[in-house]
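Late entry, evening session. Most of the bench is empty. Finally got around to the prediction I had been postponing all week. Sequence below, unchanged from the version circulated by S.P.
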Amino acid sequence: MFRAARTPVSWSPRPVTENVVCALYELVKWGPTSANCSPARFIFLTSRESRGMIRHALSAPNVERFMDAPLGVVICQDPVFFDHLPELNPEENLRDWFASDVGLAEETAFRNATLQGGYLIMAARALGLAAWPISGFDSDDVEDALMAETGWRANFLMGIGYPGETPPPERAPRLDFHAACRLF
């Protein structure tokens, strides 16, 4: 899931079925979040037409590969995720703690929704799919087009599908342990 899986260069025309989309979420929902807050919300764009609703929001280099992906996903965070805490966490007054501190709630929602988006990548790989995360887009345009009535905030986008036959280029280098880590 880390060493062999790669970001796809092209997509197979094989569709990602609704059953597979549901299976993705069934895996993602079990990933840990702080206080089990689960602030991520996912908008699955299952057709080229639905992905076209946000085409104008994509930066130019991302347009075609996102449009060609069998499944587009908007990974969002719910700013009022804490309204669900009474059903997700038995700790008393936890909802009120987040509701009374907008800064804490926003930071928690962003951090944990991003984490859940990472779980989505791993869930896709576990199901034999490839994932292509995208940060090059106008979040305000995406929010206006897809989620105005929800209050959700767009975190990042992802294309998901079965990889095409075009092989990826050589793997780009990564930082070694000593450049990226410190032991205390």
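Two things to note before I forget:
The chain has a mean pLDDT of 95.
The beta strands are 40-45, 71-77, 130-134, 153-161.
Will write this up properly tomorrow.
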